[in-house]
Amino acid sequence: MSSAALCVQELKSMQNLLAHNPTAALKEVSTKLHSLNNSSLPINQEVWFSYKNIEISAQIKLGLLDEAKANGLVLYAKYDAENYPLFRAKTAFLLAVVNQSTSNSQQSLAYLTEAMALIENKDEPELKADLFANLGRIYRYQADYQQALSYTSRALDMANELRNKLKQASFHNQIGVIYDYIGNLALSLEHHEQSLRLQQQLGNQQGISDSLYNIGEIYRDLNKLPLALSHFSQALVVDQSLGNPIHIANSYSKLAQVNMALNKLDVAKSHVEQGLALVRKLNVPSDISWQLSILASIYMAMGELPQAKASANEALELALSAQAKRTERSVRMILIEIAIAQKQSSNALTQIAEMLALPGISRIYQSQLYKLQAELYEKQNELVRAIKSHKDYQEVQQQLFEHLDKQQTERMKKSVEVIRQDQELSILQKEQALQKASLANLELQRGIVILLLLLLFGVLCLIFTRQKQKQRLFDVKAKLLADNLEQKNRLLADVSHELRTPLTALKLSIEVLQFNLEPNIERAYIKVHSKISQLDNLIADIYRSAQYDNNTLRLDKDVFSINELIEDVHQDFIPRFNEKPQGLAVNSQDNVTIGVDAERIKQVIINLLNNSLAYTNKGGETRLAMYENHSGIRITVEDSAPGLSDEDLVRVFERLYRCEESRSRDLGGSGLGLSICQQIVLAHDGRIYAEHSELGGVKFVVLLPK
């Protein structure tokens, strides 16, 4: 293979690694650049630039924005627009992304405009698609959703022509977010599901996380809070493994919002504080403002008004500096609510008037503001103003129910404007020539008739649009219900299958005893007892799992020594591991205490050790370890071969999922042990996951917060 072909292959490999593991890509490309810079051979500028491009892209993905910006500015100065237009355009695009990530929208827009001009007449469809998508993202941040949708749709069309699944998935995700902001949940869900399918085909973990995150948003909007919590938790796990602090902070903020809605205020406050700490380190004003707005809402719910006001004021200042209009309006509403709660009616009325004067304020905000305004005027006994505000509120409410499509509205406005101009012309002609009064009156009547017809047409359009949107919402709800029913039916079928197997064996054993076909009576009774125990374990596990699902299980939390708990379990398992035989090693820190339900956590460790004992080859090894860090307690159980496939590692916590079905059933497992472990850990606000072990088997990791 020639050196040029080898170089192209290396670049493709690095670009693929960049999409799936930016940390590894950054390490590899840094090594390559170091080698090129120290080589005595002449450097190929195109190859060197391609490696630098990958390096900056990896830094952006990992949130190393200062390093990315410094690198980008070096390239920007090195390659001028006249001699290196393509290099300059690609560098401008990277600098646009960096500035966009630090909320510098104006500078980002300038770089994107320059890049578009440089490649306008060049065959660079992939770069053009990325430029259109980022223009759409800027307009989305500025709450100009029509422009955002237009640019992102153009980017998606180009990605479809290129058959680039990675870009298709990314752009579907962006369009889904825009529709979510607009309020069209049906179309939003459709685009996010399409994005998730493409990301799963590609195996792109970050893309899967983004789709889970956004689908969680939709479930939150539909008030499906447990489903939203589940999706955001899964997204956080992936984000933490990939290491992008912006994505981690966003997942924390969404978990905070859902927990606040579930009235778990302490948990919500903990989540948002972790997210806020991350974005403060990055010094991204728009993200800091958003996190502070959530924190202010939590303080409001806790009744801590001074802290709420301080957080909201800081959030407003940052939102204004970053031109983050959506966050700005949300924070202004919080400040109004704080003023009302502090009985500062005049201050609240001033803030309401300021917010109503903002350009482009949505009808939802208008509705809330007029309602609050009417209530405050009524309390001040200013009845005339209160009545006017109430009328304004009713008018906006009426508009909210109409749900008229924006394009239809624009066409309606244009038609009405034409009629208005006709009427003005008719009046002018009437004033100029009184003798043509009858003709002018006729023109006026005709105009009125046309206006009425157009208004009637508009009402019919409103009715049609509303019915269509209702139908779409109904379809979404029906799909969700169908999915829930399918999951329940599958669970019932699996449970039935699990119960039928030991019952059949038990029936055969009893028939053998009944007809005296078993020469060894004692062995037959032992077998019967074994099957009854298996049934008892299965039913107990099903009952425990149902308790968690129905939120009926109560945790008896107290401060316990985790060392004593692990040692207790260790002593119980020593004879069983020696009998197999199989090695069992325990390594833990001393004097570690934590507030948990000791029996439930003990059950988790027992289930994991039982699992290791059952499925590890004879002569194998199991390691149980525990240590404490700044965030909580980490417990690991890992063993030697055999291991699990990547697919099994993801699905191993599903109810009744078996990696080796026949063997699992022979060993008496219910298939619910790991699912129960996950439910117990989640009830403690922790998390549990599985990964490959260095010993050749499986490693289960349990993280418990302090």
UniProtKB/TrEMBL annotation:
Pfam family, one: TPR_12
Occurrences of domain Histidine kinase (ranges): 494-706
Top class in the EC scheme: transferase
Reactions listed under catalytic activity: ATP + protein L-histidine = ADP + protein N-phospho-L-histidine
Family annotation (InterPro entries): BphY/WalK/GraS-like, HATPase_C_sf, HATPase_dom, His_kinase_dom, HisK_dim/P_dom, HisK_dim/P_sf, Sig_transdc_His_kin-like_C, TPR-like_helical_dom_sf
TPR repeats: 129-162, 209-242
EC numbers: 2.7.13.3
Residue stretches spanning the membrane: 444-464
Keywords: Kinase, Membrane, Phosphoprotein, TPR repeat, Transferase, Transmembrane, Transmembrane helix, Two-component regulatory system
Protein name as annotated: histidine kinase
Originating organism: Pseudoalteromonas aurantia 208
